Amino acid sequence: MKIAYGNYGMPATPFVDMLRQVAAIGYDGLEICVAPCYPTAPDQLNASQRIDLRQRALDLDLEIDTLMLAGISVHEPHAATHQTNLEQLRRIFALGAELGLDNPVLTSTLGGRTTDWERDRAMLADRVADWAAVADECGGVFAAEAHVGGLVHAPDRMLWLLEAVDLPGLKLNFDYSHFELIGVPLAQAIELLVPHAVGVHVKDVRGRTPDFKFLLPGEGNLDYADYLRQLSAAGYEGYITVEISGQVFGAPGYDPTAAAAFSFCTLSEAVELAYPGRGRYS
User: Fold this and answer.
1) φ, ψ dihedrals at 142, nearest 5°
2) Rounded Cα distance, 216 and 218, in Å
3) Contact by Cβ (8 Å): 66, 107
4) Phi, psi of 38 (to 5 degrees)
5) Are the C-beta atoms of residues 167 and 129 closer than 8 Å to each other?
6) What is the percent of the chain where pLDDT is above 90?
7) Other C-beta atoms within 10 Å of 265: how many?
8) Residue 281 belongs to a domain
9) Does some domain include residue 282?
C-alpha cells in the first residue's frame, strides 16, 4: 500500500516547489487539486506548464494518481450553472489526460445540507448522473465523497446514491473521518463502502458533529495500522492519500511542508506496523 499527498493542503505553493517538497518528504504519489485558483487548476496551467508538471513528477518518481475538486458544488439547483460545471468537468478530465492519467479519477464532495435529504436527493441523483456521464465520456471516473453536514453524510445515503445512479462513471472516494464524526464504526464503514472505492483520503478528527475539528493524520485517536489492515482485508490496495482540511491550512501559522511531513511520518510508520518488512519505508 502506497502513500500519496493531496496538494489541496498547499493552496498557495507553486507546483514546482510543491512537487520538490512532496518528493523530498518521501511520498509515492500525488493527488492534484484542480479547484479554482489553485496553482494546479486547469485555468492556471498553460500548455507548456502542463508538460512541465508532468515531466517534473516523472523525474521525481511521483505518480499522479487522482484529481481532487473543491469549490464547485455537484448539488447545483440552477440548470445553467450545472451546465457550466459540466463544461469545467470536461476541462478537468482533459487536464488529467495531459498529465498522463490513462483513466482519470476525479473526486469531490457533493454539497447540500444533511437536513434536505428527502427534498433534494432525486435532484442530486440527476446531477451526479450527469457528472458520471461526463466522466465516462472522457474516459474517466467521478468518485463521490460523503461529507459531514452534507446531503450525503453517511454510508446509507452513499449506497442509495450509487444504486440510484448506477452508471460505470460513478464510484466513491472513502474518507472515514466524516463517518467517525457521526459515530459510524470503522469496520462498518469499510464493509459497506470500500468495495465501491477507487480512492481513500485520510485525516483525523476531534469531537462529534456539530462541534468538531479536522486534524492532521496522527493528531487524533485513529489506529492507522489497524485501518490499513482492514482496508486490505476489504480488498483495497490503492493509494492512501493525505487530505489536509481547510480548517487546518486556513489556521494562523500553518506550515504546509511541516504538515505534509508529519502526515507522511504517521502513515509510513503505520505501513511498517501493518505490513512488517513488506513496505519501502523501513
Assistant:
1) -100, 120
2) 6
3) yes
4) -70, 150
5) yes
6) 96
7) 15
8) no
9) no
Instruction: Tell whether the model's pLDDT for residue 140 goes beyond 70.
Output: yes
CATH (domain of 130): 3.20.20.150
The residue range of the domain holding 262 is 3-274
Contact 95, 45 (CB under 8 A): yes
- Model pLDDT, residue 93: 98
pLDDT category at 17 given cuts 50, 70, 90 is very high
Between 256-274 and 224-233, two packed helices, what is the crossing angle to 10 degrees? Answer: 60
Q: Which of 190, 183, 178, 132 is nearest to 152 (CA)?
A: 178
- d(CA 264, CA 29) in angstroms, rounded, equals 12
Residue 56 counted as domain residue = yes
Other CB atoms within 10 Å distance of the CB of residue 213 = 15
Q: At residue 58, what is the residue type?
A: L
In a domain, 136, yes or no: yes
Helix (H, G, I), strand (E, B) or coil at 243: coil
Into how many domains does the chain fold? Answer: 1
How many helices (H) and strands (E) would you count in the chain?
10, 10
One DSSP character per residue, 47-66 reads HHHHHHHHHHHHHTT-EEEE
| CA–CA gap between residue 33 and residue 38 (Å, rounded) | 7
